[in-house]
Amino acid sequence: MISLDLHVQPISTGGGAPPYLSPNGWDALPHPPLDEAGYAVEEFRVSGTARLYRNARGSLGASEPYATRILAIHPRNDANFSGVVHIELFNPSTGSDFPMFWPDAGYHLMERGDAYLGITCKSVTIADLRQRDPERYASLSFPHDSAIWDMLGAVAATTHLPAAGGLLPGLRTPSRRFATGWSQSGSFLRTYLSERLHEQHSAALGKSAPAGPSGAPIIDGYLIGVSSGGFGPMGYVELERDGEMSLDESFAPAGALAGVVPIDDRRRTITRPPVPVIEYHSEDEAQHHLWHARPDSDLPGDSYRCYPVPGRGHEPGLLPTAARRSEQGLGDVPDTELNADDSPRNEGSKWLIATTVSHLVAWSDGVAPPRADPIPFEVPRGFERDPEGVDYSGIEPVRDNDGHAIGGLRSLEIDLPLAFMRVVPSERHIMPAWEHVPFTRAEADARYGGPDGYRNSARRRAAELVDTGWLLPEHAELAVLSACARYPEDDDLN
């Protein structure tokens, strides 16, 4: 029996301390301060019961209670609310909650007047919260990681109620809701769709008056970020998986892969999604996903796009590592131990993700988004696929004269580069570090004729990107100014 009931209770601020991961507590903000933008941030304890998949191959056990927390960021006034809410499953791969969507997308979500719900979704991150603040988070508990599936359905169902059942105080019933997950959390959504849990929960929603009208989807669309179905150990998270998978320093599984879905299993490729789905890949995921790629589609019952982004790797684009370390209390931990070296910020990601979000929302209204060319790859003769889905070394993208991959979503960073963006050579095959090697002033001047020439070229190219759907009109001049700010000042810039 599926239960979509959810009990919502505000979490005490504990003497004024902000919720863990509140942007108000970050050292560096990739968007205007929440108060200035008319936004509030609140934290809630949410509890319910979930069916648990404790046995092999998704065998259902009894339902058990769970309690987790949600970070809500939303307009203070209903007049400024767009009616759209985005639900992010916090990434748990560091052992602590990590928002990979909000830092890049928050600027645009606040522009739109959208609301945001970030969910702690795994046992390891609940344990981390309890350790960080035993008093504040003492009542949180996850009996088994497979509680995530019905928990996601219950949170989504609650957004069909006025004020999202208390998660969005003072706001009307959301008109649409979109789920997003990035990296491991993106793989959670791949499982959720491929195991047809979306359909199960939509059917349960239709039967549970007044939660939702009959026939309404539980979620109106999905944005799956930097997650590849071809990454063996984490590209598909089995329904019954519980606990942390042990990986070595190269991100290969340390030990047997018992129970892991085989690399050629059809569920690793999203097929027949009942609502729009966009997979947003960096160049890294595009490489790993090569054998799991599928055509874009606008067919009824199969609305799908894949948007690969050249020139960037797996790490998120805008939240500096220092801000994450400060928030997580990891200021003295070496970067090498965090797998969180200060990889370059991809400013262009901000505009590409904004465009992708706008396309997804419009698609839920029946407006199909543009299609992106895939990033083409060269596969060496005699290449044999790693059965564990980890080692893709030797497969290289087709590159332009600057060494950047062709195809994919285009941006000023790639089309009018001021730096060479490349993978740092290493023995690591999964999620390698990237570096940006800035042009010298002489190199930039030789190519663009100086800052004025670059600015003129950037404005022309921005207009073309607007026409092709890869840059929103309201962001064109901002993107140009951001690109021009990176023009080298002198020949000593290296």
Automatic annotation (TrEMBL):
<dbReference type="InterPro" id="IPR045394">
    <property type="entry name" value="Abhydrolase_dom"/>
</dbReference>
<feature type="region of interest" description="Disordered">
    <location>
        <begin position="327"/>
        <end position="347"/>
    </location>
</feature>
<feature type="domain" description="Alpha/beta hydrolase">
    <location>
        <begin position="14"/>
        <end position="477"/>
    </location>
</feature>
<protein>
    <recommendedName>
        <fullName>Alpha/beta hydrolase domain-containing protein</fullName>
    </recommendedName>
</protein>
<dbReference type="Pfam" id="PF20091">
    <property type="entry name" value="Abhydrolase_10"/>
</dbReference>
